[in-house]
Amino acid sequence: MSKLLMNLRYVTDEEAAEVRELLNRHQIAYYETPPNRWGITVGAIWLEDHGQFPAARRLLDRYQAERGARVRAEHEAARARGELETLAERIRREPARVLFYFAAVAAIAALMTVPFIQVALGD
User: Which residues contact 26 (CB under 8 A, 6 or more apart)?
Assistant: First the structure.
């Protein structure tokens, strides 16, 4: 009986390929289900043999811990080199988009508070 090992929602192609390679290297039989056409379900990696789940889970947990540490280190290195975009840089690069988002948030907040203001004023 098959067992779900990994849901592929929010998983990059690079990470999925590394997981496939990890399973192949350790000779763990698996198959993938593709995402559906409308995006309701996403793809997944399934183990063909339910008995291999504990070993596969340990491998996947170790891989994800190592990947997390590596990605955090890369992020910190990019920050130290000054390669990450700051909020001020984004505002300078896309002022119209930032203004649009600010106006949208202000409009939503106003629409949400109008009923409370009307009740408080007794209208």
Answer: 55, 56, 59
Residue 109 burial (CB count, 10 A): 10
- What is the chain written as a DSSP string? --EEEEE-TT--HHHHHHHHHHHHHTT--EEEEPPPTTSSS--EEEES-GGGHHHHHHHHHHHHHHHHHHHHHHHHHHHHHT-SPPHHHHHHH-HHHHHHHHHHHHHHHHHHHHHHHHHHHT-
pTM equals: 0.68
Q: According to the model, what pLDDT value does residue 123 have?
A: 61
